[in-house]
Design a protein that fits this description.
Length: 288
């Protein structure tokens, strides 16, 4: 997996990726019932979101795990930078695959989260591990985002799509089936109703004019960022990093795209653009 490669810059991932709105943390907090002793955040990457969970959900102990030692090193550095701040004092990070929850006693976790990683997992093995780890009525929460678009420049959607999926650009450099699973908003990764109930699943497509009235609030990820920051965001894509290694002497597809954006909208590196993403989340509770 590209993110676990020694060549992958975890700090680029940490700094360039979008963040989740406070309203979403509140929504997850309101869904959860029962104790707030143990929360496990799998596929935690460099730990940004794990620390946000600790801050917003107020669990007694929060564990962040990732299969990449490089990501965990970055998370530990971030944790050390927190010093004695309350958002980090009850957080621990360790190297484990998301499907490996044997390190915690069965029926002791109150919540397991998986943000922007389920498309990489052996989902049934992960689901089984979560079911074993959770207390009765404990919460599983998974979500992801994909395919950015410029809110104010819909005519650039094709250019973004070409960059991501064009056969002569990044299309063949995504790791599949993971990328297709995410593009389809985890549609194929259904939680087992024999193990979980109160299953809530909400998909949001930013350009879908036929978006229904949602019974539950969709996860809206909107970010105002500079053109230079969006360029850094592209630099965090696994496909772009794989493309760079394979095409060291070729014109950079990221540079070509950014120049196209600048020319279309008369933008400069520090010009602000509004970006939004397609999203999905699934919440459920373990059956007794």
């Amino acid at each position: 997996m590209e993110f676990s490669s020694q060549d992958y810059a975890s700090n680029t991932y940490s700094n360039a990726r979008p963040t989740y709105p406070v309203a979403f943390f509140k929504q997850l907090s309101e869904f959860h019932q029962g104790k707030r002793d143990v929360l496990i955040d799998v596929g935690c990457g460099p730990g940004n979101f794990t620390l946000e969970l600790a801050k917003n959900l107020q669990f007694r102990q929060v564990y962040g795990t990732d299969m990449s030692p490089g990501m965990i090193d970055a998370a530990l550095q971030k944790l050390a930078a927190c010093g004695g701040q309350s958002s980090g004092k009850n957080v621990q990070f360790s190297v484990h695959a998301a499907e490996d929850l044997d390190w915690i006693a069965a029926n002791t976790a109150d919540m397991v989260t998986a943000a922007q990683c389920c498309h990489w997992l052996d989902f049934r093995a992960f689901e089984s591990a979560v079911f074993q780890a959770l207390r009765d009525r404990g919460t599983i929460a998974i979500w992801g985002y994909v395919d950015p678009s410029f809110t104010d420049f819909p005519d650039l959607d094709d250019a973004i799509s070409e960059l991501q999926y064009g056969a002569d650009q990044l299309g063949s450099y995504w790791e599949n089936p993971g990328r297709e699973i995410l593009r389809n908003l985890l549609e194929s990764q259904k939680l087992d109703p024999k193990r979980f109930d109160d299953i809530t699943e909400v998909q949001y497509r930013s350009r879908d004019a036929q978006n229904p009235v949602y019974s539950q609030k969709p996860l809206r990820i909107d970010r105002s960022m500079t053109v230079a920051e969006f360029e850094d965001y592209i630099g965090s894509w696994s496909a772009y990093n794989a493309w760079k290694r394979a095409n060291k002497t070729q014109p950079d597809v990221r540079d070509i795209f950014i120049n196209r954006v600048k020319a279309r909208a008369c933008l400069q590196p520090q010009s602000l653009i509004n970006v939004t993403w397609n999203t999905v989340y699934k919440f459920a509770r373990k059956k007794c």
